[in-house]
Predict the structure of 6-phospho-beta-glucosidase.
Amino acid sequence: MTKGVKIATIGGGSSYTPELVEGFIKRYDELPLKELWLVDIEAGKEKLEIVGGLAKRMIEKAGLPIEVHLTLDRRAALKDADFVTTQFRVGLLDARAKDERIPLKYGVLGQETNGPGGLFKGLRTIPVILDICKDMEELCPDAWLINFTNPAGMITEAVLRYSTIKKVVGLCNVPIGMEMGIAKLLDVDHSRIRIDFAGLNHMVYGLDVYVDGESVKDQVINLLMDPNNSSFVKNIEGLGWEPAFIKALDVLACPYHMYYYKTREMVERDTDNAKKEGTRAEVVQKLETELFELYKDPDLAIKPPQLEKRGGAHYSDAAVRLITSIYTDKRDIQPVNTRNNGAIASIPNDSAVEVSCIITKDGPKPIVMGDLPVQVRGLVQQIKSFERVATEAAVTGDYNKAVLALTINPLSPSDTIAKEIVDEMLEAHKEFLPQFFQNVTS
Ligand code: G6P
């Protein structure tokens, strides 16, 4: 790549775009971005114009020669792109609110990437990402697809197994959030921390953690026993771990493990919150309204600090450091979602895993982690089975597979309740699930 870099961002009207732009500005010396194409759909046009205006002001303030293009024409954005980043939400936040509210009626967790919500977000999103892959094959076959759209693990799995795109990396801010959170707890600079990550997206464990190469795992596990330290993301309130459990687990849990190891308490807490301030999507809807009001201000030319109230904080660091390392063949270590290729012994080779990798110009090379410790292996395998069956359901529109996926998910209490939830959610999301309404096999 000798010409200036072209990046297309799908879902460019997202409130997270200023994060990304800040990252590009900070790393411009290493990543000479020439064209940034922010693309959205008709329904996102107004947001695209507002956030695009802010992106242009941020770049102008930084004095950089980056062209920002705002468009509803995905094909024009993709043409000859070097990197395609995806951060779209099919059905917008209204769909997320349904994913969160409907399962709660059945006493089941309502969350955007786990349980029924995760399943339905996958069912809505996978056909769209596969369509983007088809456009990429034709318009930018050498580009890297950097996916931030949730459920990021399932989306990476779908691209790897059902498209011809091989240059795909799934990205999440949870691992970088854990690194930064632990660095803060230990009062050391983030650059001195390394965690051996292994597992799946939102189901990742830190098998060990080092400061300057020395293991500090026991010290960190002791710190995690403090309820104030049990979550590293803004969207999950840490309810605190049982010290006996977290000590014996002997690896670092991620914030999303709260949903699996404290299911009852999390469902109760979310049910209560839904009654009081609303579900997370409803809270985020209000936050977004405030954010877009701020973005409109013609004098604003920085990422507003209010964006840090969102769960996706550090997204720019994760995304731009990844793109930069691919572009410069940096060979540093980063946790990403990629094809397992034997790195984690307990997971099929052709499945997506979230694992520490060496990032090269040819993409992430997973570091061999061996077998997962027995105390976490089963849960990770069960979620991988869920993700694979769910992905198949999304691609085929097979109703029975959707019921199977939810039934085998550990957050679902029974096959009958799983079926009832699937039925209600299929109906609620009908508009975004055409594959199920052309091809019902029940
Ligand atoms: C976390 C997750 C992201 C998720 C976000 C939600 O950080 O890693 O996958 O999208 O939180 O944040 P929000 O502010 O939208 O609830």
User: Anything to note?
Assistant: The two ends are 50 Å apart (CA to CA).
